[in-house]
Amino acid sequence: MAVPDDQDDERELIMDAAYRCLLASGGVSVSITDILHAAGLSTRAFYRHFASKDSLLLALFRRDCERVTAELTASIATATTAREALRRWIDGVLHLMSAEPRRRRALILSSEETRRARGFAAERERFQTDQEAALAAILRRGVEDGSFPWADARADAEQIQAVLGRALDRQLLCPPVERPTETADRVADFVFRALGASTGRPATGVS
């Protein structure tokens, strides 16, 4: 039986074991008994950290969402303009989630078993709200520096998040018909035009 160094290690052992069990079942079903067997821990250890299987599944989903948000935030930290920050965010969303093993994790952590967990809808909504807040901050910066003259930060952040979500779902669930870079280019072109920003493409009409 595994002997964790501290309570945090014990919690991580359980969460990592839960993911392995979900992966093995294809996200269809997993039991606390299976998870504890995989972790090499006792029932008492489980209930020291989680009130139920649902709370464990939500913790797994939340941990991955926080990691994604942290990576995206880091990717825009050095952007010198709002336009660059928004392009990095779009690239980050579509590249991070399309690459293995992150793509596989995203599918497992939004699988039937996880979606059945009580509180999943609220947890997912919290993640969406955090993403929209980050996008709105970028758009406000663009309004201030003139790069996004047509932007309504809050409303447009919701719309951009919806467009990204749709593009991401297609990448995750359907056979890819284009590379993530091509999808990012298409989304960025649409978003920049909607915000009144230059697309950066050569002009083809009258100047």
Automatic annotation (TrEMBL):
Residues making up the signal peptide according to the UniProt record: none
DNA-binding region: 31-50
Keyword entries, A-Z: DNA-binding, Transcription, Transcription regulation
Keyword flag Repeat: no
Pfam families in the record: TetR_N
Keyword Transcription appears in the UniProt entry: yes
Residue ranges annotated for the HTH tetR-type domain, each copy included: 8-68
GO molecular function terms listed in the Swiss-Prot or TrEMBL record: DNA-binding transcription factor activity; transcription cis-regulatory region binding
Superkingdom as given in the UniProt entry: Bacteria
InterPro entries: DNA-bd_HTH_TetR-type_CS, Homeodomain-like_sf, HTH-type_TetR-like_transc_reg, HTH_TetR, Tet_transcr_reg_TetR-rel_C_sf
Identification of the protein by name: Transcriptional regulator, TetR family
